[in-house]
Specification:
The protein is an alpha+beta fold. It is built from three helices and seven strands; from the N terminus they run βββαββαββα. A hairpin with a 2-residue loop joins strand 1 and strand 2.
């Protein structure tokens, strides 16, 4: 079945189903407080969340080949600047707000895979969760140095 409900068109086709909101926003709200997507979800715009985003990434050893520790992690961390800043006023969702972060170009210069991406408009973005392994290896390098100083 298909139908038009206000500015929402639900139309099952031969290849896909579609919900079209060409004249406004689409708000999904459920009486129970939970809206489920039981398939892959692709968002081509910016996702804004007012609550927590809870996710898990597959990290099982059995799914990986060519495992190697990140070399010179402490040097990599030392090449980064942890900064506070104010977003320029014309930046969507953030304009004028104070924030804390890193500089994407510095992260990109580390040469590690998938830490940054370049968006269609040319700006760079950082996958902050991917910095954690670098920090772990840097801490381990510091631990070795501390142990050497304690026990010459």
């Amino acid at each position: 079945a298909s139908g038009i409900f206000g500015n929402v068109r639900i139309a099952p086709g031969s290849d896909n189903n579609e919900i079209d909101t060409t004249t406004g926003n689409l708000i999904l709200d459920s009486a129970s407080g939970t809206t489920q997507v039981n398939d892959n979800l692709s968002v081509s715009g910016t996702g804004t969340f007012t609550g927590d985003v809870i996710a898990f990434s597959s990290s099982d050893r059995n799914l990986k080949d060519n495992i190697a520790a990140i070399p010179d992690a402490l040097d990599k961390v030392n090449a980064l600047s942890g900064v506070t800043f104010t977003w320029k006023s014309d930046v969507e969702f953030h304009g004028g707000k104070n924030d804390t972060g890193v500089i994407a170009q510095e992260v990109e210069a580390l040469g590690l895979p998938y830490l940054t991406m370049t968006r269609d408009d040319g700006t760079k973005a950082v996958r902050y969760d991917r910095l954690i392994p670098v920090l772990i290896e840097a801490i381990k390098e510091l631990k070795i140095e501390v142990n050497q100083l304690k026990n010459p």
